[in-house]
Batch of 2 targets.
Target 1
Amino acid sequence: MNMFQPIFDVRDLRGGISSLPIANEPIFDVAHLAHVELLTPDLEGTLCFFKDLLGLEETERSARSVYLRGYEEQYHHSLKVTAAASAGLGHIAWRTRSPQALQRRVAAIEETGLGRGWSKGDAGHGRAYQFETPEGHRMELFWEVDYVTPPAGKETLLRNRPQKRPAIGVPVRRIDHVNLFAAKREGIRDFLVDLLGFRERERVVEEDGSILASFLSVTNLSHDIAMVPEGTKMRGRLHHVCFHYTSVQHVFDIAELAREADLKVEFGPGRHGIGGATFVYILEPGGNRIELMGDPGYMIFDPAWRTVVWQASEFPNAAAWTGAPPPDSFLTYGTPLAEEREAVPAAEPLVQA
Amino acid sequence: MNMFQPIFDVRDLRGGISSLPIANEPIFDVAHLAHVELLTPDLEGTLCFFKDLLGLEETERSARSVYLRGYEEQYHHSLKVTAAASAGLGHIAWRTRSPQALQRRVAAIEETGLGRGWSKGDAGHGRAYQFETPEGHRMELFWEVDYVTPPAGKETLLRNRPQKRPAIGVPVRRIDHVNLFAAKREGIRDFLVDLLGFRERERVVEEDGSILASFLSVTNLSHDIAMVPEGTKMRGRLHHVCFHYTSVQHVFDIAELAREADLKVEFGPGRHGIGGATFVYILEPGGNRIELMGDPGYMIFDPAWRTVVWQASEFPNAAAWTGAPPPDSFLTYGTPLAEEREAVPAAEPLVQA
Amino acid sequence: MNMFQPIFDVRDLRGGISSLPIANEPIFDVAHLAHVELLTPDLEGTLCFFKDLLGLEETERSARSVYLRGYEEQYHHSLKVTAAASAGLGHIAWRTRSPQALQRRVAAIEETGLGRGWSKGDAGHGRAYQFETPEGHRMELFWEVDYVTPPAGKETLLRNRPQKRPAIGVPVRRIDHVNLFAAKREGIRDFLVDLLGFRERERVVEEDGSILASFLSVTNLSHDIAMVPEGTKMRGRLHHVCFHYTSVQHVFDIAELAREADLKVEFGPGRHGIGGATFVYILEPGGNRIELMGDPGYMIFDPAWRTVVWQASEFPNAAAWTGAPPPDSFLTYGTPLAEEREAVPAAEPLVQA
Amino acid sequence: MNMFQPIFDVRDLRGGISSLPIANEPIFDVAHLAHVELLTPDLEGTLCFFKDLLGLEETERSARSVYLRGYEEQYHHSLKVTAAASAGLGHIAWRTRSPQALQRRVAAIEETGLGRGWSKGDAGHGRAYQFETPEGHRMELFWEVDYVTPPAGKETLLRNRPQKRPAIGVPVRRIDHVNLFAAKREGIRDFLVDLLGFRERERVVEEDGSILASFLSVTNLSHDIAMVPEGTKMRGRLHHVCFHYTSVQHVFDIAELAREADLKVEFGPGRHGIGGATFVYILEPGGNRIELMGDPGYMIFDPAWRTVVWQASEFPNAAAWTGAPPPDSFLTYGTPLAEEREAVPAAEPLVQA
């Protein structure tokens, strides 16, 4: 029987096996998505959504911002919600794998001119190196982080969990990934791959081979970050942030609670082709699109994973392997809204390291 | 508000942050669990279980062995089933992250004296370095692997999947982890950590601090491998191999099919404390214990994860956070059976590299 | 606290409580939907769908027809599939609650002129009284039925189940309901209520109060039968037949298998407003629309249930409380296809009782 | 092919088909389980369980009692919780199918001497006829009932639901059934069948044919009420009350919340053989055993259903088709506790009709 042919020849790797120099080995310096900052013009509504429907715990609050995390998350926060004139992305924070890894990545970014310098840190983590993607999305890298101790009365017997599971809403377990609008996907994809060590797991291409959408990760998840086409002249816009459940039943449960709360359930429930997770997309009261996923879809353990390529004509299957295709709004709606011309808030003053 | 105290001080890391030399960074050389070889005295029954109930695909067959994989797995096989006088573990294979990583790990193992040398490979993968754990479990490391192309008639439109989802049994998606009996858990734990780069994610300890059970991974899964106490004088025994589903509904579905097939459903359905996955344990017709898990439980992205420690007195919660505690057999039954005195089959002749 | 007002005054019942004569009590003569006959121009494809994907068991086969049932169904069959030039509905069979109940219903139908007389029965059941709805859908009532004994090798230890659960496809448990096109919904609704004792559970009405859709049952299910608008001059067309699962996970599983089998998944997964069940609609190879539901939605135990009324403007919520609204085809596609002008096959010769 | 033999000969019915007199037709006078009254020595704790974990809505409160219902229930209440010295059953209320049905059942009960007379009703329903089972469990029958209007701010767009789905705990949809201890199961079984029109759906028998447990319903559910052996000299004790979810995922979710709330999860999650529902049993803070079921198991539509008979030796399968067998406490623990000798509270004064 010879029905299986290798579809991947390890000799295709640059340099060949025997001669592959260590310098060509992958970068493992970025560990994972640590937190996202969302801007909202309706702080109270947004908090109500994340706390009462998604069961996020508030760990700290400052004048303009509230810090939240899922009940299985150990860091100080995975979501920072900040009052602002417009909805949108504040910043995305990645934790490195070690202090040295942080130094290496900072050195690499500084060469690109996209670095913005060191902040002195924020509630819950130490100093962070801030930079922008070529598309203007603010990001930061850090190493030092604060862990939570259980809030009083929320101690659990489950020793791998920082607190009891909340008895409110349909509580998410953790943040999963972020999806951004980008005018030039090749540029931001290359930035993430070359500078931060992301691997491109899947992409959707036009007939001419140009990238319509790209999905990348540094973890075993199918994507920690993704980019879709920006159709306006705006930069740095957010498509969505995703949080994680255990099962598709939870996806249906939260979709129903969202309906009952008069929130817009924009797309789903369904099952993505790309990544394979079951999903639903809801607009939170501040206007940001939030994805809730029911299981992690497939995971990627193969260290030589070859990027899965979808043609643009296959987009319906890629977007919804089961369930209705996405509505038009899914391809265009983002935050800040295209009508809004307000700038995102000025960055906090930076402390140069 | 000061209710959160950091429970982890990064300065506790050996050497401190600023002075941590690169040489002290983690080993990332082992990528994941690639396949397991199971021995069975009832080859036909064992194949019926894996193919007709778990929906594994057969990719190749030799005189004594059959090679199988889940419908979301891209490698040639994740399970090799080999006819033998007794049930038990054949070997466990890990894929490295690169050819260089393989060379580094081999060099490290060879210093321990536990290395057995290079095999010329097997169906589906290139040459592999074989060795034994301090407890006598056979393992191997390899880099070169064959990928599958879809069997004729099983091509799918889902481009990240190598073939259609089977319409048989309750098909598993992929292999998840392996669990071994070990007389001295510290020894094998240290071997995995120091030589192969595993991180210990959770452990159960006796009052004196000695290790009752240990759970380790190189991936974002809570464990790729685990060890529990060996109560006999036998060495190298298998506790179980685990395969992965999407939801707890699948766990109930396969438990019911197993009942209908007159197989022993030993433990579960339930939800583990350790790892947090929903589970059921079934004895396959050859006698090996197989776990089916419904979701991945929690995942670990924190690069400085501190091992979760359970006291032996907390074992019931650790074993079953929801559901009945494990039956006594779960603590003692393994393969080969304790009564059996037959040796595992002689290793294949090795080709020294 | 007085926030709850009765929304139903029992004195509204015709005649009032104390004077309500026994003759005004509900009719309990029809017990449930016993089976449906589907016509198919692709007998082999249709059987493959029902047997290999839905796990129905074949109990008997005649020259043109095959008799099938779910693994939790005790009667000889709940589905009869008959080869024909066009897809569509053969007939719908209801079992009465007793022999006397059968006699009473037959007497009532005979007065309407819609009766067609007694058949001598069919494989699996005794003589049946055949009739047509005012819209030309063929129905029958019967009392005597054959029960199955487990097929050899399929005996189960589960004493309330006639056989083992199949290890194939995503097996349905039982038939659930049928949905018909009708030009005049009031007429067929009144026929079912007045002659057969159905209760109207929900309805969708136009602004002028005329019925757009009606959902009725004789059981505790929210509907055993439903009617939607016929937009062509054809009569007796089928909208869909529904089969039942346990959970929404199964709905996603079968949707995926249908995608892999190149079948059209027309609508869903989602959750209906009306009835509240999770669902997916698939076109079987013969062209008939089949619904698979994941849980029974809400059940009705109230003997004085007041029909739930939706305005036509609320149809999107009524059709899909969660999930995308139905595609246009859902409102128009039926079997036989609107293009087809072929008559359904001539009725079998009847034996007058 | 003749592999199917009828296992039920309709001519076995008393009198035969043709001569069966109308008087021998089944009684349809009792419609369903309307509500249960639970006694609790810890009113606050019990309310916390039902409101904060099970999401029941409070509709009214009196000096000693609180009235609750599930979010899909239309009546004033399905659960009345009453402060008392001991946990246990207050009473069980059945709604009849019509006012006449109520009169017929009262007349039948009065002949037995087990009637206690008419109460003037309670919050949420009109006058009720009270009686005791031969085992001393208090029951009542009524017809007039109050329906809820949605609490202010809880109005929903889902027209078949009286209010929004709660965003708290894991909210149950409705009450399902009640299970009682009985010294003589034949006696109470016959009482329910002959006087109230229940059908016995399943039973477990000793070797001598005597009844160990019996499961009966008037609805399409597999049981509305069940009886298990009373091993003490006490009478009228409660085994459990069951509430209903949609899926086994909810069963796991509530089991976890119960663990987090330091409640005893006594048995499950698992799947019953009898009835076929997925389940978990939790002791509420007042001490009463509460079952949560994830799907309705199989339903019974057959009007000539033959009682499923399990031998006592098959009890493990009957109790848990999947999952661990019940712990010993499941067979003996009930409320009031066996140690308690306190009488249930004196019945309210009755108003003779």
Target 2
Amino acid sequence: MMVIMRKDYTEEELSGILERLEEIGLSGHTIVGMERTVVGVVGQVYPELADDLETMPGVDDIVPISKPYKLASREFKPHNTEIRVGDVVIGGGQTVVMAGPCAVESEEQLMATARAVKAAGAHVLRGGAFKPRTSPYTFRGLEEKGLQILKAAREETGLPVVTEVMTVRDVDLVARYADILQIGARNVQNFFLLEEVGRVGKPVLLKRGFASTVQDWLLSAEYIMSKGNRDVILCERGIRTFETATRNTMDLSAIPLAKRLCHLPVVSDPSHGTGKWYLVEPMAMASMAAGADGLMLEVHPNPDRALSDGAESLTFENFRLLMERAKAVGEALGRPLASEAKGPARA
Amino acid sequence: MMVIMRKDYTEEELSGILERLEEIGLSGHTIVGMERTVVGVVGQVYPELADDLETMPGVDDIVPISKPYKLASREFKPHNTEIRVGDVVIGGGQTVVMAGPCAVESEEQLMATARAVKAAGAHVLRGGAFKPRTSPYTFRGLEEKGLQILKAAREETGLPVVTEVMTVRDVDLVARYADILQIGARNVQNFFLLEEVGRVGKPVLLKRGFASTVQDWLLSAEYIMSKGNRDVILCERGIRTFETATRNTMDLSAIPLAKRLCHLPVVSDPSHGTGKWYLVEPMAMASMAAGADGLMLEVHPNPDRALSDGAESLTFENFRLLMERAKAVGEALGRPLASEAKGPARA
Amino acid sequence: MMVIMRKDYTEEELSGILERLEEIGLSGHTIVGMERTVVGVVGQVYPELADDLETMPGVDDIVPISKPYKLASREFKPHNTEIRVGDVVIGGGQTVVMAGPCAVESEEQLMATARAVKAAGAHVLRGGAFKPRTSPYTFRGLEEKGLQILKAAREETGLPVVTEVMTVRDVDLVARYADILQIGARNVQNFFLLEEVGRVGKPVLLKRGFASTVQDWLLSAEYIMSKGNRDVILCERGIRTFETATRNTMDLSAIPLAKRLCHLPVVSDPSHGTGKWYLVEPMAMASMAAGADGLMLEVHPNPDRALSDGAESLTFENFRLLMERAKAVGEALGRPLASEAKGPARA
Amino acid sequence: MMVIMRKDYTEEELSGILERLEEIGLSGHTIVGMERTVVGVVGQVYPELADDLETMPGVDDIVPISKPYKLASREFKPHNTEIRVGDVVIGGGQTVVMAGPCAVESEEQLMATARAVKAAGAHVLRGGAFKPRTSPYTFRGLEEKGLQILKAAREETGLPVVTEVMTVRDVDLVARYADILQIGARNVQNFFLLEEVGRVGKPVLLKRGFASTVQDWLLSAEYIMSKGNRDVILCERGIRTFETATRNTMDLSAIPLAKRLCHLPVVSDPSHGTGKWYLVEPMAMASMAAGADGLMLEVHPNPDRALSDGAESLTFENFRLLMERAKAVGEALGRPLASEAKGPARA
């Protein structure tokens, strides 16, 4: 942490800073530059210190130096984290595809979709049983009934299942059915929920928040990891910007950036990220090219009759075409599609 | 809801839309313009319909017409909602000041602050017992011990208490101690929590999210109101933008805008909104001038030793000076400071 | 400037940095902290240095310390700059009101408006002769004919005139007619234009750009000042954010912040800032309360027939009411309305 | 254009709207819905009409239907525009690579770079002779001397040249030297400049502004096209968002979106878009996968000694590696690298 002094600071004010640092067991190294004097803080700093020092007389600004996350950082663990789910490995250099409807609407709808995405080569089945909705007056999911349908689909197709958990109370319930627990964008700073899934022995897929910087997102992963669960998969899904032509603005540079800063796998969700089915395929290919470890895609038997997010869902045929293209692009990139899951997944 | 057809739509595609609408009990009125053909949807539309129609052949875009919130809207209830807390009324045309430390750190710290803000004319005591923190490695509040200290301060000073609740599990606990339950910016779309505080018989102060549009924010209020609790106080506290010189960017135009669209009181939190103590007073005055029903302010005995958000806290003396200025400005605006709370508040 | 080394830097890399600094006449002070090693750069640094050093081996990040603007900074000139226009002083502690139509449409329209705003107490007449428009197919101003009409209005009413100049070629032309040259938000980084108005002996009103940080804005002022013209008035007019309910999001905290960082007067334009006439009055009052040195307001005889920006224009009557309120609020704030301009302004 | 009436509108107010529309030669079709009454405006509407109607009594909101750009729209011209520069075609289904230093610094630096990028397979040479810089105190280019150096490089290597023009006055000068005129992000709404390059017989590369929506960007292209120059190349280079870990946030979804809405070629500039050399290659590949017609890349002999933007420049070796990867990825995508330019370009 660096303390930048005001141009007109007094020697007394500078001494005040140095004394304060000593008082709390740290030390300060003063550099007198031509334009500014700066005090470098040496010792084990804690984050609140910035706020405290900023209010002291003579101080112009505080500049943090250390990164605030540890367990997630590549400096802490240089090698990629690989997470096994069923027979596929996420983060191991191959591209893993998670596909399915936004919401589980019925057994018929989910089973048809599960079979179609499996046939087209998907590795994981996605589907929401609990749906966060901006309005209280919209369809919010089949809840436990939806989880049971997902389980049935896993048993038939062998595809492991990723599904969202929205509240602490439901963590155990969802963990009984799901292979990967999903934390949605709206809950990225629901810290009690993060800690609760940190205590569960299942991988967690953590979506980036609408307003999360990459650093915030890694700190949310840190919450989960600090409770013992190291199997966190990051999922880029767009941030909120002034552009309204797409539902969100996908920040694909966050994929290589997050992978440089941390060792966790990063997947991409171009369905929510764009909100337009016709942008899903180009942004899926772009995500792979940016280095994503996987894709999360919405597929629906009849997108124009979906109870949720129809506008961004692919038809079975469009998903099949996307997978063909992903195969070719993945090979050119040296990130081939993961080999198909074989047999029932381990729950 | 309006369906905008593509320029090159076919008659068959248009018929498809009209038939689909009839199938679900609605009807469509077609307007053939010079540049575009538009179908106005008549009947009780539901929000998902936009997504469904958008994927139908021949459709260029869908434009919603109705506002998605009802109970919160001024069209539903034209008159201002007034919320009584202790002896003050929020939303009744006077300015209510809520002040105290960001976090309750000790009985000594809170009692001293409570006495100081009471002496300077504050109406409500604020203080966090549960603190949402971006990093898992920072001080997160005294929890129930903090609530007990708040209760003691209320008993001594008579000031009602507003404090944050972060998770469904703690709603009953916090409601036993607090006069107003606060929902923080990070939980503005934690829908289970919103519904839970909607079942409690205490007013709720709902902060705007970092990435919430005014409409999103009103929909979050709608979640609370839809469970029966109509006493919601909105709190503007800044949104996330590209500007980094302040912690957030306060959107003061949201105050008169929200008051035009809905009937709920709107208060302003310039401490979190700016993150800089020296911007708090001008932005507090500006909030009043923009029409805020109240202010929420951080005050701390020693801002440079605070365990949380010291950089944005006022000293006792600065708070006193702010209150003097607020008195004069409030009178000029026709929004005087509320008269002081007398005697112990009703819990 | 501080050079933050990577955790795994080598001694050779550190030496490389220190040698490079000496090679260009600077020196480096190394601080070895517990988590990071930092090199403080001492000497006259230049901005490109950050980019250069950032690519050197062993470097993690570069942190600039000095502010990149000089002439505009309060450290360079501690006292407020006061700018006299006609008989009013902008930046002298009183509130100056600039009012008039968005665009000059006809002599009749402008003269009626000039008389009305003068009668209600405005100090400066605004009106666009050259209009920047997002679409090439919209009304773009009367050009020199508009300037002549503005001149006629000044002669009759005595109000000095502020009007926009959009291109280098027109600077001399506009300067012959205007008392204050306005640089619009879209031209805030049109550096040749900034330099050209920097060579003119008239004050310049510099709007903030849609995407300008406060620092960018001050650097644009620095461009003007670096050519010799020190009479720059900053004008906050909203930035672009995710919120679409208002045309822009006014960042009122930028007013006290800019006044703290620099010595120039800062005015506020709530008409463009909000885009909604019914938000203009509350945001005008809020701007005053935030410390603005003046207001810039759109007034039109028939807002529903304006050729430009009718939705944000006040009627004569609404402007009169706003001025009454501004009078009361200004007195309470200790920033009274400037006394009326008397007699013809000096061109 | 649709006029949305307030819920409590009166018949008199509705008649007022209809009469006003007839008065200006349009007509209104009224749809009385369950929640809202809407008036569809039929006839040749003009953009200002929205503002005018919005202020009329009884009106709640105005919803535009038509797109405000014409010449640029795919509805106006369904087939892709192909632009020939030297021996390459931009927009014809192959990937065109423009590479070179951010700024021309010396003949030696530019010639070395031109030879290196040519050897690695680039098709167009980029280099700035006029540099827009946020601070007035930084290197701003060699101006005409820089143009002469670019010309010499074209003569030796045969690579056509793209370079920026910043002001109306320099358009003819730059057009004498350049094969493609570049309009920078800061000038995307410098309308006089747009019109001036619209009168020149050379292709124009139009960068997206920091705060431009896709629609704004297409309107800026429309300005150029409306003056007769139809050869506009759009260039995505990132927008300004809350994320500060990268210089800008690249909005790659804008590439397929712009190509759907308009017929112009779209290229991508990941060097400026990210500001970090180590993100350039993944974002270049991602841009190709998103459908870009070309790439614009910064290459410098010694990035750590560049006078401008060193942190985002590739070394010769890194550029060569990127081109190898681009070759493989382009083939997998069906968008191979364009065949090399042969012989001197036509100036």
